[in-house]
Design brief:
alpha/beta, Ubiquitin-like (UB roll), 2 domains, four-stranded mixed β-sheet, 4 helices
């Protein structure tokens, strides 16, 4: 079909007709080990019960694959359900980036700082990157320290500085980066 993708389900182990070995060691749906039987007998027994034949091990000590009669759809459903539950419990940390320059205008600076405070209050991490261009590199130590001190004063005025953790991400030739985030609160 045009525009539609067909997804082929990939199985970890071969099931039913995809099992190619002529002889298999069969375990029933009740967990009883029947022993080594032909593949056809195992498939017939699985069809009689109305379940699937799934290869659970490539081969046993005799070199014969081990197969089990199970409800494969139910196994897939439970596996998917576990993955969904695991996704729900994981938390995603968002990092927002604020880029500034030493020659930033006061109005632009205020706007970026307000955004930064908003992101921090939402529980996001904020990466502040300071870029130097041209002759700004000559005074980068002084200007960088002044600008980040100004950011710390802004956060203090916003009432967040005592709850903030600041980690230096790195200083490259023409930029400095720090990550700010709120400390975990203990209840």
């Amino acid at each position: 079909m045009k525009g539609k993708e067909t997804r082929e389900v990939q199985h970890q182990f071969p099931i039913n007709e995809k099992i190619r070995a002529p002889r298999v060691q069969l375990i029933t749906h009740e967990g009883v080990n029947i022993g080594t039987v032909s593949r056809r007998e195992a498939l017939d027994l699985a069809q009689q019960v109305g379940l699937d034949l799934v290869q659970i091990a490539p081969e046993n000590k005799d070199g014969v694959p081990v197969v089990k009669i199970v409800n494969y759809g139910k196994i897939q459903y439970e596996k998917k359900k576990k993955q969904t539950e695991a996704k729900k419990s994981q938390s995603v940390i968002q990092v927002k980036e604020v880029k500034i320059r030493p020659s930033i205008a006061e109005n632009d600076y205020q706007t970026k700082m307000k955004q930064m405070v908003q992101f921090l209050r939402e529980g996001k991490r904020v990466k502040v990157t300071l870029f130097f261009k041209g002759r700004e590199i000559v005074n980068q130590e002084q200007r960088g320290a002044e600008l980040f001190e100004k950011i710390n004063r802004f956060l203090t005025d916003a009432g967040l500085f005592q709850d903030i953790v600041r980690e230096e991400e790195g200083r490259v030739e023409r930029s400095w980066s720090y990550i700010y985030y709120l400390k975990a609160r203990k209840n």
